Each structure stands twice: as structure tokens, then as C-alpha cells.
Amino acid sequence: TAVYRAGVVGRRPRVPVDAAALQAAASRTMSRRARAYVDGGAGEGATMRHNREAFDRWRVVPRVLHATTHRDLSRRVLATDLAAPLLLAPVGAGALVRPDSDLLIARGAAATGTPYVFSSQGCNPMEDTAAEMGTTPFWYQLYWSTHEPLVDSMIGRAEALGAQALVVTLDTTVLGWRPQDLSLGSLPFARGEGIAQYTSDPAFLALLRERVAAAQGPAEKVDVTLAAVRSLVSMTRRFPGRFVDNLRSPEPRAAVETFLGTYSNPALSWDHLATLRHRTSLPVVLKGVLHPDDAERALEAGIDAIVVSNHGGRQVDRSVASLDALVAIRDRVGPDPTVLLDSGVRTGADVFVALALGADACLLGRPHLYGLALAGAEGVAEVVENVVAELDLTMGLVGAATLDDIGRGLLVEGR
Ligand code: FNR
């Protein structure tokens, strides 16, 4: 209603309200590298299409005369109170879209009271991003490093900052086959985008120091190296165009290479996850679960929640749609476990459908980056406001006063 009122008094939107127009406008403003990275998907893009087709198959069957003047969109998920069933998905290397991407996304998230899941591959140290969140909760997303001290260090930093959950992303033990990025020949991370979490980490810097020392010998050189690495992030920020020149010096390149060799672990297994019990006190969320067997096993292993996700179709092409996987997983695990969904969520009506099919909340991915591309923190906030406003109106129009009123009975599958 507030969004409509604003329109009545003549406030012009900063970003297109329509989801397709939002993407189109954002894509036009992004650099070729940013567009390839953000809009691109794995392989031929079939998974991305499946995500949208799955939403299109479901139809809402509104109820009438349900007295829904007052609607409550709030819900508690794990230890986090959500004003609306929405979080901002973790996104790495956002500096391709705008410098200081994480700070701006956090500012937009905080302006709307929407929790943000900080990425391991964020473009600002998590300490700085957390400062932007104010009192709005945030979660931390971990890519499990091959270097175990780094896993503990990242978790420790997130805990110290007050993150309310630890999200372990499982679908990116290696990067997927992404033709758009590969065709450009200049991959994300090549210029140090998305490594700020690492270059601000003592365990990473210690490892880097060892590696550089082993490669170069003299100890004096190492301090110079560390200074160079520490400035890497700010250089990316201040001189985005010229940053490639800075990479000619070997030290930042060593940082990028060390990052590439350690950020994720292809050998990740259930045994690694079992160690989390004594490594963190935070609720643990597994992101990237699609198979009901895996969902069941995760919950048996004491995991607190899962995010049904195919990483926005960026990892395995020809994957099952995330929404279809949600239905299968909910059928298997029953109504109680906390199950979130992302991949393909674009509108408030999409969130409604996901909730009706059993999601407790959704993560919004690419759309918030589109808001960032077009209008910075304000763009992020406006995209979120629009999604929540449409969900609110949909609830009012179909007779759902609370999120618990949204159920399978309000949907039919289309033919
Ligand atoms: C992502 N995603 C992601 N996920 C994660 O766990 N850690 C990360 O660092 C990133 N990085 C990232 C960068 C970009 C540019 C995109 C678009 C996505 C995946 C993200 O959290 C989410 O799962 C998807 O974005 C959901 O798909 P849609 O709705 O954006 O299509």
C-alpha cells in the first residue's frame, strides 16, 4: 500500500517495477564482464529457464471475503526475526557491478530491515559490511576452504560480529561451466574482485606469507608483500579501471592465486560437516540442496535448515528447477524442518507460490544486484520494497492474513 501511495503523490520509481524491465535496464548499465557474470548461467542456461518455468506452472486460486485489512508478513526463521519472509542471497564479486558492492547492498538491506547473507566472496571485509547493517540481522555464507584454519577463522569472525546463522554453500566445490564468463577470457576474481574476505583474514595472510616466502626466499620481502596484499581491496575500489596494472606486481597476483587454490574444497563430505558441531555455536544452514535424500540426511545429521537452491542455474546445467526440488523435499521431510528457497524468485507472487509450496522464506538473488547496478543502496532497497509490497497485496487479495494462511490449498498446477 505504501508503494502505491508513493505513486499517488508522484514519487518516481528509481528502478523499473516490472521484473523483466528491471533486469533489462540493469543489464544495459553493466559492463560486459559484469553482465556475463551476473546474468550468465551454467552451460546453455537450461537450469535458469527451468527455474522460471517451474514458477509459471503454478496458479493461485484466490479466496474472497476473508477480511484481510491487517496482514502480518513476519516470521521467525532459526534465531532471526524476519519482517517479511525474505533475505538477500549471498553474492560474490559484486564489485564487478559497483565498487563497495557489499556495503551498498547492506545499506539497502538495512533500510528495509531485510537480513543479508554475507558471501565468503564478498567485496568488502565482513567487519565493514556488518557495520552497515546496524540492527538488522545478517547471516554469514561460508565456502569451505581447503585450508582448515581459514574455515575456523572465517567462522570466528562471523560469530564475533554477531551473525545469526552460518550458511554453508555446498553446490560450488568447484566453479560451474559458465560460457559467458569463459568467452570473455577475463574471469571474475582475475582482478581480485571477491577476495576481500580473504585478504582481511589473518589465517589467509599467514598462509600467503608462507607461500610467498617459500617462493621468494628472503624474509624482508614478505612484509612488503603483506602491505601490498592489504591494499589490494582498496586498490580495486579506488582504481577499478587501472587495477589490472597493479596485478603486474607479483604479490597481489599471489593473493589471487592463493585464493583460487583455497577458497573451496572439492573433497567436501559429510565428515567435514560433522566437525561443525564443535566449531560453531551458530545455527547451521546448508545451501544448495536439491535431492530429497540429501535433505533428509542433513536433517538427520542435526543441520538446522536447508536452502533449496541450484545457485540460480550457475552451477549444473539441466538441473531440476529449485521450486520442483522444494516440493519433493517438503514431501520427504514433512512440515517441521526449516526449508528456504532461492533460484528464480523475481516477484512477490513468486514468493507467495514458494511459501504455498512449503518454503519458510525465500532468498532474493539477482534482482537485488540489478537494483544495485541501477541505483546503488537505494536501488537495492526499492527492489526489496517492491517484492514485499506485491507479496503483501497478493496475501490481501487471496485471503491470507498471515504467512501461516498461505498453503497448498491456494494453488493448482496448470496444464
Ligand atoms: C551468486 N550466488 C552465490 N551463492 C553463494 O552461496 N555464495 C556466493 O558467493 C554467490 N555468489 C553469487 C554471485 C552472483 C553474481 C549471483 C547471481 C549469484 C548464488 C545466490 O546466492 C543465489 O543462490 C542465486 O542468485 C539465486 O538465483 P537467482 O534467483 O538469482 O536466479
TrEMBL record:
Q: Tell me the cofactors it needs.
A: FMN
Q: Which organism is it from?
A: Nocardioides scoriae
Q: Which family does it belong to?
A: Belongs to the FMN-dependent alpha-hydroxy acid dehydrogenase family.
Name it.
Answer: FMN-dependent dehydrogenase, includes L-lactate dehydrogenase and type II isopentenyl diphosphate isomerase
GO MF annotation terms: FMN binding; isomerase activity; oxidoreductase activity
Keywords from the named record: Flavoprotein, FMN, Isomerase, Oxidoreductase
Q: Where is the FMN hydroxy acid dehydrogenase domain?
A: 11-415
Task: List residues binding FMN.
Answer: 90-92, 119, 141, 169, 287, 309, 342-346, 365-366
The entry marks the following residues as binding glyoxylate, namely Y37, Y143, R178, H311, R314
The record's annotation in PROSITE patterns points to: FMN_HYDROXY_ACID_DH_1, FMN_HYDROXY_ACID_DH_2
Provide the active-site residues from the annotation.
Answer: H311 (proton acceptor)
